[in-house]
Amino acid sequence: MRLFACIGLLSCAAWLPAQTSEKKYEDFDKIVKGAKEHEGLFRLHLKDENLYGEILPAQLNKQYLCPIAIARGMGLGGYTLNFDEQWVLMFKKVSDHKLHLIRRNIHFQAKKGSPVAGAIETTYTDSVLLAIKILSVHPTRQSLLINFNEVFMRDFADTGIGFFDTSRSTWDRVKAFPKNIELRVAATFSGAGKGKGGQSVIDARGSTVVFHYALVELPDSGYNPRLADDRVGYFLSAVKDYSTDSKDTPYVRYVNRWRLERADSDAKNKDRLSVPKKRIVYWIEKTVPHEYRGYVREGILEWNKAFEKIGFRDAIEVRQQESEDFDPEDMNYNTIRWITVGAGFAMGPSRANPLTGEILDADIIMDADMVRFYKQQARLYGSNKAAHLDEFASPMQAIKRDWILPDPAEVFGGEISSWRKKPKEETVEPGSQFWAMKYGLCQCASCMKHELNLAALSFSIRDQGKGAEKVTEEFIGQAIKEVIMHEVGHTLGLRHNFKASSMLPNDQLHDVAITSKKGLAGSVMDYLPVNIAPKGTKQGEYFMTTLGAYDYWAIEYAYRPLDGGTEGEWDKLQDIAKKSAQPGLDFGTDEDLRASSDPLIHVWDLGNDPLKFALDRIVLAQELAKELPEKVVEKGEGYQRLRGAFNLVLNQYGNASFLATGYIGGSFAHRDHNGDPNGRDPFIPVAGKKQREALKFLQEHILSDKHFTFSPKLLRRLAADRWYHWGNESTIMTAIDMPIHERVLSVQRVALSELFSNDTMSRIQNTALQSEDGDALKLNEVFRAVTESVWTLPKKDAKKETWASSVLRRNLQREHLGVLANMVVGKGVGTRALPPDARSLARLHLREIQGGIEIVLRDENLDEVTRAHLDESKERIDRVLKASFQLGL
């Protein structure tokens, strides 16, 4: 009995596991019972706090695009997070109970079947982001049921904001469409650090950010990628192809562009206008103020003129959102939206298939403060509260040297309006300009805000009178249209062109007959200043109101219908690109702004002679400064506005200083190819005559004290903002009185830091080798011009006379001594090494200054302050020279 009982028990024990193993999964219907179903690319089931999704067998090992954006929160609403690196994801079944979510490594490729293709497979792998549990299998569809909470209820965007709190995070919105699903997660973070998020987060212990994720089916194979050319500026999708036969590079680069095809494909009718098979549709979101929608529409539709030139009628369509319910982040809609983060910026990123460059979606966001800063009584004049650009002596220099762009830590650790990156001892902060490029951040509107303030100030001073309202309406309309044109250009694939502003001669900038047809610049993709007419000149257009020659040419390159497929159309593309030497087609983009020495590649300049523009702005500043005490502040108002206005005036001197230094050691950069009609060499040094003109400009207008004399009445009225509350604390923590001497010195420091940087001095010597006329500017000329302007010391045989001095001049002299001293002891500043000749010249000039000081000190009538200053300077020079000797320099 016992034996049979034991055998029976063993039999049951052997049978039970076998029966259990057959039931691999939970009951499908039981899991999704009561859930709200969304039918789309993936069938979704939203139940309680869980979002279940079905993955069909045919959807495994298939590639999906995963766009990520911030929909709301932390002052970042509307931001595209993976603009630079589109994520391509794939679901892979690795066992009966587990899927892997894989991010594909799409950077490397080779022709299938080639020997090198196997090598690539061995060398490069994809990244397994997550292991996801398979909960059940549908009995008929055979779809695998997973919980999308495992994917998206975490910091899937990899922002590093803080600790993701699952218990306080929820699904904000779920939508499904045939080719994409759109998911919003209201993610709450804690532990992000006290104060993170700035004004946009009331308590950092619970910072909520609404992330918008999408999974998008990649388009079919009917699209022909278009190869890029370095003469025309487009965002790129690039891959390293180890089987390419190119002599220069293993990279294959495609321009990012929309799939735009003629509905009329008849070869005989290609010269006739044809509507596209599918238009590019932009929706003006209902957040855009009613009074601006017309200007927004005009800015978008302006690009149709370029498409008409290449055979498309109404390539772009504009629709106004009224009752339509959609998310701006939805990949099915291209939107223009207004947000309010207090930064006065705009951005226009587009998303492209990283495998082909086909643009799939675009969204433009514009901060309402760009216009608000101007509209507040039409003259806020860069109030010292939020004018981050005004904190720099030269906003132009701050942009080019990357001193004010945000880095990822700042974006995700504080509010976006704190866009200030302070220079460390006037050195360049690397990387931020390129970070901005990667994330689609455009400073066009932020720059526009600064220029709007200057224009408002000039309107007030020049007293527009009864016509002011009309001027304001026309002015604001042109400003909005230009910014929208610029951002739409980005969404069409175009990059910045900071050389476009040099198209017109300066004396044609206010000829409306010219600018209304050709534009103020070669391209709207530049950062253009307000075109303010010099006093006595009839005002022309304030902003760019139409496309420039470069814009037409760039659209032709990327969008003109061509035959032959991707490879076969190359020769025809070369026929288009070789026009680069034609007037108005010059191109210089973000990396050129950062790294080139071309004096025509700047932000906020206008005309083919930036030195002339600089002089016009200084004359404008002088005109405004005389009237500031009386014209800016009305009866009953505080004087705080006057201080902001004065900062704007000083900025014009700083910008002028920076523009002039751009000529010293500069070279005009070109992208022409060998054999292009009228092609130019890649580098043509600035003529010695022009460089000397720029040096003289600096001597006359910057490196002296005669242009920095302001009325005592003005200086007495430069009041600080005295409000102290949340969002305004920083203003009261700075000096209440205006440090005028320090501000003037900061303007002069722009010239000294640029002229005597290692990079400039190295370029002066190197570009001299490229000059064929023997008239190149030499290092010693720069040293001599600055020393004579700053010191004006007597020679040994000079007639004895009392030497005049001022606080402004003495401060400048101390700064100059510091620059020379640093060179002598080997502490030059820049990315290049200090040329030995520069160190020798610095030593020579210190000795000459020391000798001149000794002569002046013999004057018994010298005032006490001047004597103390010169005596200290003499001793300082002596210590520097001795130190350099001891160091063996």
Characterise the protein shown here.
The chain starts with a helix and ends with a helix. Residues 1-22, 193-197, 377-388 and 405-432 have low confidence and may be disordered. With 889 residues, the chain is α+β, with helices and mostly antiparallel strands. It contains 28 helices and 27 strands. A hairpin with a 5-residue loop joins strand 1 (36-38) and strand 2. The strands form five sheets. Strands 4, 5, 6, 7, 8, 10, 13, 14, 15 and 16 form a ten-stranded antiparallel sheet that branches. Helix 7 runs parallel beside helix 11 (444-462) and helix 11 packs antiparallel against helix 12. Helix content is 37%, strand content 15%.
Quick structural summary:
It contains 28 helices and 27 strands.
Name the features.
15% strand; 889 residues; globular; ten-stranded antiparallel beta sheet; 27 strands
